[in-house]
Design brief:
- The complex is a heterodimer.
- Helices cover 74% and strands 0% of the residues of chain A.
- Chain A is mainly α.
- By secondary structure, chain B is an all-alpha fold.
- Chain B has one domain.
- Chain B is 69% helix and 2% strand.
- Chain B contains 10 helices and 2 strands.
- A two-stranded antiparallel ribbon of chain B has the order 1-2.
- In chain B, a hairpin with a 2-residue loop joins strand 1 and strand 2.
- In chain B, helix 4 crosses helix 5 and helix 7 crosses helix 9.
- Chain B is globular, with a radius of gyration of 18 Å.
- Chain B starts with a helix and ends with a helix.
- Classes of the chains: A mainly alpha, B mainly alpha.
- At the A-B interface, helix 2, helix 4, helix 7 and helix 9 of A face helix 2, helix 4 and helix 9 of B.
Chain lengths: 197, 209
């Protein structure tokens, strides 16, 4: 039972108090680039949730059952990135084969995800914090959901802002960063509810 | 070779000014923004990035004729990851304290979009010498921006620079600066200043096209 509670704790902390985007700045590139429309960011967010959860579990298994017994700890960067790239590649092929519609919605985002820093970041954090397999699953799922919440909120705000007058120098990236800063402030309100270590 | 040197100079100027990866393209800030609350950590990260960027550019350029185009991304990532592992091991051995503070961010240099971007956009189609120069230039253009942000954040947030207290006891620390939102606001401010004051109108149109 306490195992379950630990997993839930990690999950909620990863969504709210330790949001991977707003407190660790990971996945900024695609966040800034793809947050123009709610529809696009929904697709990208869903793809991130799926890939992040699966790769954090896969990487946990590979790290603990392959690298640690062989004493090849220092190769973890290469292994993580290869696992992520291979996984994305396989998923893309499966989706393309079985569901035309899903491929149309998610397909174009999958290659982008390979270079999303947040995916690799989750695997690295998981190793540093010594999570168990169940916690790694919770952390991957929570971080993915957190990222999705952030990009959806941002896309919603940006859609409303199309008609707003923004100072010339701030257009595009500048104003998006400021909104992200305010969102980060808002998320800091969750601090103290729970902590991740 | 005079044309070569002028070309190299041009690359240097572009990367530091008009084509600066951070201001103009807003790329690759993920891995480093998180450590900009201290100048020292930022400096170490930027040094690691400069090392990885220049050498991976050089390696990709040397191998560009032998790389099958279908798997070139994978090859590039592996080259980059190799250099990052070197940085990681060296840091762990010589500066274990800083290595612990940086945590996962050293590994995240691998997914820094600038490194991949320069390899794809420049090193794949240019000779090794020029690619190396391009890597160094892009690295410097990136580093000075982040060091400037780190300088402001550490000065305002903790009243110190490089861990040394410079503002006296009268200074009230701006706690927000060392916390997460501070970096967002600081970067936005920098982009605003640079775009508004330094980039000329004709650059703006060029960028838009």
């Amino acid at each position: 039972m306490s195992e379950m509670a630990a997993v839930l704790g990690v999950l909620f902390a990863a969504v709210f108090t330790n949001n991977i985007l707003l407190t660790n700045y990971l996945g900024m590139c695609s966040f800034l680039g793809a947050s123009r429309e709610v529809k696009t960011s929904l697709g990208l967010g869903a793809a991130v949730v799926f890939v992040m959860t699966s790769t954090s579990v896969l990487n946990w298994i590979c790290y603990h059952y392959i690298l640690l017994p062989l004493d090849l700890d220092y190769l973890r960067f290469i292994m993580f990135i290869v696992v992520i790239a291979a996984f994305v590649q396989v998923v893309e092929m499966i989706i393309e084969r079985f569901s035309e519609r899903l491929y149309g919605a998610l397909g174009i985002f999958l290659p982008l995800i390979t270079v999303n820093c947040a995916i690799l970041g989750v695997s690295l954090f998981m190793v540093i914090r010594d999570y168990t397999l169940a916690e790694a699953f919770g952390y991957g799922l929570g971080s993915g959901l957190g990222w999705m919440v952030a990009i959806l909120a941002m896309a919603g705000i940006r859609e409303k802002m199309v008609r707003a007058k923004v100072p010339v120098g701030l257009e595009g990236a500048g104003i998006t960063l400021i909104i992200a800063g305010i969102m980060a402030l808002a998320f800091m309100g969750f601090n103290g509810m729970m902590t991740l270590n | 070779m005079p044309p070569r040197t002028t070309e190299a100079k041009q690359i240097f100027r572009d990367n530091i000014g008009r084509d600066n990866p951070v201001f103009v393209q807003v790329l690759g800030i993920c891995s480093t923004l998180a450590v900009t609350n201290s100048v020292k950590n930022t400096f170490v990260m930027c040094a690691g990035l400069l090392f990885t960027l220049s050498l991976s550019n050089l390696t990709v350029s040397l191998l560009r004729r032998w790389m099958p185009s279908r798997i070139r991304m994978m090859v590039e990532v592996l080259i980059i990851a190799t250099y990052v592992i070197i940085v990681d091991i060296a840091l762990k051995a010589f500066y274990p304290e800083i290595w612990r503070q940086l945590g996962p961010y050293v590994g995240l240099i691998i997914t820094n979009c600038i490194i991949m971007g320069r390899a794809e956009a420049f090193a794949l189609s240019n000779p090794p010498g020029l690619s190396f120069v391009d890597g160094v230039a892009a690295g410097i253009g990136y580093s000075y921006v982040l060091l400037a942000i780190a300088f402001c954040r550490e000065l305002l947030g903790s009243g110190s620079v490089w861990g040394v207290q410079v503002l006296g006891g009268w200074w009230e620390n701006w706690a927000i600066m060392v916390m997460a939102p501070g970096a967002f606001f600081m970067l936005a401010l920098f982009i605003w200043i640079v775009k508004g004051l330094i980039l000329k109108p004709d650059d703006e149109t060029k960028e838009a096209s």
